[in-house]
TrEMBL record, chain B:
GO terms for molecular function: electron transfer activity. InterPro entries: ETF_a/b_N, ETF_b, ETF_beta_N, Rossmann-like_a/b/a_fold. Residues 27-218 form the Electron transfer flavoprotein alpha/beta-subunit N-terminal domain. This is Electron transfer flavoprotein small subunit. It comes from Acidilutibacter cellobiosedens.
């Protein structure tokens, strides 16, 4: 492979139901930085796939994309990994970007992995840092062992260099109205015909979650195994509501079935959060969980085991029974609020 | 109707001990001595999903891993859960593999042992957690796959209806066999091993295959077959100075309220 033929930094933008995922804007900002480090004159390119998405290009431009490749077709309404990766493999082979950044969402991860094999290249997953080294290679800092270890990964002999980043890790840039960008329309209809039809998306089932999304919350009230029961989960909700925040949890709460799914799980395989305040009840502090909340501004932890590792990463700690303290706290705050 | 099912598993250092991992200051390598190897937690859900299909429709469950030979203990545990046969792909040549080389190696192993109707994996390993291997394995095998599977329904012998996770919900898919399904942890609760199961597992076949036993391109395996290279590793310090609040329960609540106010949370 002649790697010098591969040029430019691309972002695979992601949209669901006509709304661009904010991780796409975060990646565009990073792509601009990487372009500067590469001293490249190639435009920062965003690729967007879906049905009836032409109108979304504007916002990608506002966040700094200099070129937007639009792949718009009725067959692309719902995420289909076979069709999406067929299209992207074709597009990437034709236009040869040197770097491809993808949001580490469920579909983003899926596509990144597939492209790794189809393009015969390396994929750095869940990067927490990205920069260009003296040989003009992309260096991705990726976590392992639940975030305990951070290791650098490079992919020096293959292109494109693919890296995924979880939502909320990077900062998005300022939105600038009226930014000029070039739109390229890519007609996928011939490629779509090549799909064997082994997978078909039948229907999207959205879940309406009440309250503020975890990653946007200023206050996160989190519960772990130490909250003791499904019933106490409602106490956490109550406190979160009083503090103007939302609830989160660690793995055992999901495994115990105290909540129906893992949408509010914090950690390596869950959400990464950085709220103003994290307050954890009955969370022992496994490496996996800590990796997802360690960057919170203030961390308060309540656990009955005084040797729980969570205290090592907390600003304020209480050794005590999570349930009792939770009830007391709710009662006192309610009183304060009613005054 | 009966299915030939493969489950790919990975022995990983026990996630409960990841805070004990350090970097050797001299060699700059990760030290994880003393941490026991366990079956990757998500892979037990994969085994359970396979056993449930076998129990309902009949068939055979084969587990496969790429690991050092001492993975035998982990494989016996899966056999004790109810799997029928186990294979360990083990060879020095496989060492240093990234996800691309790992998935290729597993694919070549599965081609040798199979063909399989259904391949089931977990969603990710606890150690590397890249989530890449299931999708990559399916690419090498040129079969369809779905990741984050919450529900599997059989439409007929060769077609399934599968629910897979996306952000904020799920998508219902039609998928044709042979296929690979990476099951999410909420799909089931893995069974425990029983005394009878453990006894039975000792008599079940466990085979170790090296490079010479499978049809494999040496350029695609181990370090050589890995496009990614690992550089510097470090253990970031995340420790904070923890102020412990002490007192009777109702005093604690007051102290906490003071801390909440200090953190800028309005309470009136």
């Amino acid at each position: 492979m002649n790697i010098d033929e591969w040029k430019g930094v691309w972002v695979l933008a992601e949209q669901r139901s006509g709304r661009i995922d904010s991780v796409s804007f975060e990646l565009i900002q990073k792509a601009k930085e990487l372009k500067m480090q590469l001293k490249s004159s190639e435009p920062v390119t965003a690729v967007i796939i879906g049905n009836g998405i032409e109108k979304l290009t504007e916002e990608l431009g506002e966040y700094g994309a200099e070129e937007v490749i639009v792949i718009d077709d009725p067959a692309l309404e719902m995420f289909n990994n076979e069709i999406y990766s067929l299209i992207l493999t074709d597009l990437i082979k034709k236009r040869k970007p040197e770097i491809l950044l993808i949001g580490a969402t469920i579909s983003g991860q899926d596509i990144a992995s597939m492209l790794g094999v189809r393009l015969g290249t390396g994929v750095a997953t869940h990067s927490v840092g990205l920069h260009i080294d003296e040989d003009n290679n992309l260096v991705s800092a990726v976590p392992a062992f639940g975030g305990k270890v951070i290791g650098d990964i490079i992919c020096p002999k293959h292109r494109p260099q693919i890296a995924t980043v979880k939502p909320g890790i990077l900062e998005k840039g300022q939105k600038m109205q009226g930014n000029k960008f070039k739109t390229i329309r890519y007609d996928p209809s011939d490629i779509i015909k090549k799909d064997k039809g082994c997978i078909k998306a039948l229907a999207v089932h959205k879940k309406e979650y009440k309250g503020i999304p975890l990653q946007e919350a200023k206050v996160v009230v989190a519960g772990g195994f130490g909250i003791g029961s499904k019933g106490n989960w409602n106490l956490l909700r109550k406190l979160a509501q009083l503090l103007g925040g939302t609830v989160g949890c660690s793995r055992p709460v999901v495994d115990e079935g105290w909540i129906p799914d893992d949408h509010c799980m914090i950690g390596t395989s869950g959400k990464t959060i950085r709220p103003k305040l994290y307050i954890g009840f009955g969370i022992s502090g496994s490496t996996h969980h800590v990796c997802g909340m360690k960057d919170s501004d203030v961390i308060i932890s309540i656990n009955k085991d005084e040797n729980a590792p969570i205290f090592n990463v907390s600003d304020v700690g209480v050794v005590g029974d999570a349930e009792i303290i939770l009830k007391d706290l709710i009662e006192k705050i309610e009183k304060l609020k009613s005054m | 109707m009966s299915y030939n099912i493969a489950v790919c598993i990975k022995p990983v250092p026990d996630p409960d001990f990841y805070d004990k991992i350090t970097i050797d200051p001299r060699t700059k390598r990760i030290t994880r001595s003393g941490i026991p190897a366990v079956i990757n937690p998500a892979d037990k859900n994969a085994v359970e999903a396979a056993l449930e299909i076998k129990e309902k429709y009949g068939g055979k469950v084969t587990v496969i891993t790429m690991a050092p030979p001492n993975a035998e203990e982990n494989m016996r545990e899966v056999l004790a859960m109810g799997a029928d046969a186990a294979y360990i792909l083990s060879d020095r040549e496989f060492g240093g593999a990234d996800t691309l080389a790992t998935s290729y190696t597993l694919a070549q192993g599965l081609k040798k042992i199979g063909p399989f109707d259904i391949i089931i994996t977990g969603t990710e390993s606890a150690d590397g957690a890249t989530t890449q291997v299931p999708a990559q394995l399916a690419q090498w095998l040129e079969i369809p796959h779905l990741w984050g599977v919450k529900k599997i329904e059989f439409i007929n012998e060769t077609e399934l209806k599968v629910r897979a996770k996306i952000e904020g919900g799920s998508i219902e898919y039609f998928i044709k066999l042979p296929a690979l399904l990476a099951v999410s942890r909420e799909i089931n609760r893995p069974r425990y091993t029983t005394i009878m199961g453990i006894k039975g597992a000792k008599k079940k076949p466990l085979t170790i295959y090296g490079v010479k036993d499978i049809d494999i391109d040496l350029n695609n395996i181990g370090l050589k077959g890995s496009p990614t290279q690992a550089g510097a590793v470090n253990v970031p310090s995340i420790d904070r100075k923890c102020k412990k609040l002490r007192g009777e329960p109702d005093e604690i609540a007051d102290l906490l309220i003071r801390e909440l106010t200090a953190a800028g949370i309005p309470l009136e």
